[in-house]
Amino acid sequence: MSTNTYVTGGQEYTRDTNYIEDRIIRGGDAPEAGRWPVEPGRYRLIAARACPWANRTVIVRRLLGLEDVISLGQPGPTHDERSWTFDLDPGGQDPVLGIERIQDAYFRRFPGYPRGITVPAVVDVPSGAVVTNNFPQITLDFSSEWTEYQREGAPRLYPEELREEIDRVNQRVFTEVNNGVYRCGFAGSQEAYDAAYDRLFTALDWLEERLAGQRFLVGETITEADVRLFTTLARFDAVYHGHFKCNRNKLTEMPALWGYARDLFQTPGFGDSTDFQQIKQHYYLVHKDINPTQIVPKGPDTSGWLTAHGREKLGGRPFGDGTAPGRVAPGEEVAPGHGA
């Protein structure tokens, strides 16, 4: 990112998905070739609460109970043209890495890194260098490569017997919903916006129909697919409906999706990882070309997230044969007044 300009005149928004493809895997023996070893205490996940892609990694880390083996660094809700900053930490530095910007970890590995300095990112603590920012793979690897260190009762978020369907659902949700809201918000022409808007709500209508008869997206339990959809739904009324002009209707006006979102929000790992205030600050302050006044709206009222959803009648077991995670780790709680 070179400036805080997100809209290109006359063009459809296209996301740069060329990420650092290194992986942390069991038996990883060649970091120089992109194969890093699973090693408790070695890595630090840098994940801003405001970012939906980063929020996913925080949820999965908590559901699987990996807090004690992969530490968490939390940048503030805003960034400038250079990168996300640790302005919420004492002295404006990450307490483990000792850096003011996640950019420093990127440059430690790739001097002058030319692409976007994004979160989430996993950093190798001993060297202070970024390992990967490939957010779709990070959560899958938490599920499949860190099994030895997951908590007792950890759910199966990416079970082999459901992977084909999970992957298929994830692909449509990513292109049409997760990224679809950005295509609306960053559209550079009326034509591009109209096309993005129609695609988004076609997909939301498909999800509304799918979730009217089943509690979760794939199978009888929470999976990776639910995590990926949730972080967009959590931001929909607070940001995407108005700021990104995704305004055919609010999430609260889609009965199945709204019930589904509340069901997940009230499940440990989801709502307790959601910071509505930081979410609003990020979008309304950073996207200056969309919101030049940088006024952050006071609404919407988030108390509805805690109301009864009635989804239990559809059956299903959120954690399958596993159990819910325990209390949020000290220092990782959502600030008072920032949640529902």
From TrEMBL:
Molecular-function GO terms, alphabetical: glutathione transferase activity
Region named Disordered: 314-340
Top-level taxon of origin: Bacteria
Active-site residue numbers: 51, 182
Pfam assignment, any one: GST_N_2
A cellular-component GO term for this protein: cytoplasm
Residues the UniProt record annotates as site (Lowers pKa of active site Cys): 240, 283
Residues of the GST C-terminal domain: 159-283
Sequence positions that bind glutathione: 84
Protein name: Glutathione S-transferase C-terminal domain-containing protein
Source organism of the structure: Arthrobacter terrae
